[in-house]
Amino acid sequence: MKLNWFLVLAGVVFSVLPLFSDDQVQSQSLTTDETPIHEVKAWPKQLSVLTYNTFGMWLGPIHVGKHWPDRIPRIVQALRQTNADVVLLQELWRVKDRRFIRESLQVQYPYIVSSSWHATSLPSAVGLKNIIGGGLMILSKYPFYAPAEFHSYKAFTAPEEYFAGKGLLVASISVDGKLFAVAQTHLGASHFDSDTNDFKPKQARSHMKQIEEMAQMMSDARRRFSQRGLRPHFILAGDLNCPEHFWNAEQSDYEYDRTSYCYPSLNPRGEFVDTYRLLNFDDLGYTSTAEENPYVAPNEPPARLDYIFSDANPRVIPFSSEIVFKDIQSSPPWALSDHFGVLTRFLLL
C-alpha cells in the first residue's frame, strides 16, 4: 500500500514522542499588510493547525448565522484557549468581524491575512459576483515567508453563493527553519434535497468543478514555489463541503465502504494524507450533524465536511487529530457554530 511506510513511521514517532522537548525557542519578526512588526517565540518541535467554519453568514443587515453577536466573542475565547499555532477560519464575510477577531487575538497571533474582496482578481470582482469576498482568514504565531495569494473559483454552486468570492487562500509560513504552504478554502455547498433524498445534481456538478479548480490552483502554487527553488510542505484545509462516504438515497444512509462522489477528487494524485482519518480510523468524525448541533438543518445528513490534509512527508508527522468545539448549551446560542472544528498536531523532525 502506498502509505504503509508512512503508517510505520507514524507508529515509531508515537513511541518516541515523549522524548522530544518543546523548550527551545527563537524570536522572529515580519511586517505584513495587516499586522505590525511583532516578536513571536517559535515552538520548534510541534505544529498545531486548526480549521473552523464560524457560521458568520450575513445577508445585508440580516444575521443568517444565528446568534452571531453572541457567538463571535465565544469563538474568540475558544480560539484563545485552544492556542493552535495556525488557525484557519471560514465564513468571516464582514470587515467588522475580521477586525474584531484580529484586534482580539493579535497578541497571540501577530501574523494575519484574509481574503477580502479586493484581493480577488479584477475580472472576478466585476459586477456583483464575488462582491462579499472569500470569507477566509489565517492567523499564525509564525511569520509569513512571502505575501499570501488568493484565487477565486469561477464555478459556484447554490444561487446565493454567486455573491461569495469563494476560493483558495495560500500563505507560506516559516516554522523553525521549515517552510509550510498553508492553503485553506471553503468550497460551495451541495444542498440536500429532502424530496429526492439526495444531493442536488447541478450543485454537485458545480462543486466538482470547484474541486478541479482547487487542484489546479494547488498545482500552480507548487510550481511557483519550485521556480523559486523552494519546496514547502503543503497543508490543505477548510470546509470542503464534501462528505467522506457515499450517500445511499434508497436506504437514507451512508455506505461506509464506499467514498462519496467528491472525496476521491480532493486528493487525486495521492500526495496528501487525510490527517483525521489516518489517526481516527474507526471514528466517523462528523463535523456537521443535526443530532448533536441545533444549528444544522434537520434534513441534512450528518457528514465530515471539514478536513486537514497534509503532504505525506517523513519529516512532518501528524500525531494527533481531533474534532473540537463540540460543546452544546441548553439555551441560545446553543453552539459556537453550525460546524465543529478540526485540530491536528504535527511533529517536526
Proportion of strand residues: 25-35%
Strand count, sense and closure of the main sheet?
Answer: 6 strands, mixed
- Cα distance spanning the termini: 23 Å
Low-confidence stretches: 1-43, 117-126
Strands of the biggest beta sheet: in what spatial order? 7-8-6-3-20-19
What structural class is derived from the secondary structure elements? Answer: alpha+beta
CATH architecture: 4-Layer Sandwich
Strand and helix layout:
Blueprint (H helix, E strand, L loop, with lengths): L3 H13 L10 E2 L11 E2 L4 E11 L1 E2 L2 E2 L4 H15 L3 E7 L2 H11 L5 E4 L7 H4 L11 E4 L3 E9 L14 E9 L2 E9 L5 E2 L4 E2 L1 H27 L5 E7 L5 E4 L4 E7 L12 E3 H5 L26 E6 L4 E9 L16 E8 L1
Parallel strand pairs: 3-6, 11-14
Antiparallel strand pairs: 1-2, 3-20, 4-5, 6-8, 7-8, 9-10, 10-11, 12-13, 14-18, 15-16, 17-18, 19-20
Helix pairs in contact: 2-3
Could you give a quick summary of the protein structure above?
The protein is an alpha+beta fold and about 350 residues long. The protein has helices at about 5-15, 70-80, 95-105, 120-125, 200-225, 275-280, and strands spanning about 25-30, 40, 45-55, 60, 60-65, 85-90, 110-115, 135-140, 145-150, 165-175, 180-185, 190-195, 200, 235-240, 245-250, 255-260, 270-275, 305-310, 315-325, 340-349. α2 runs parallel beside α3.
Task: Characterise the protein shown here.
The protein is α+β, with helices and mostly antiparallel strands. The chain has six helices and 20 strands. Strands 7-8-6-3-20-19 form a six-stranded mixed sheet. It has a six-stranded mixed sheet with strand order 9-10-11-14-18-17. It has a two-stranded antiparallel ribbon with strand order 1-2. The chain starts with a helix and ends with a strand. Mean pLDDT is 84; it is low at 1-43 and 117-126.
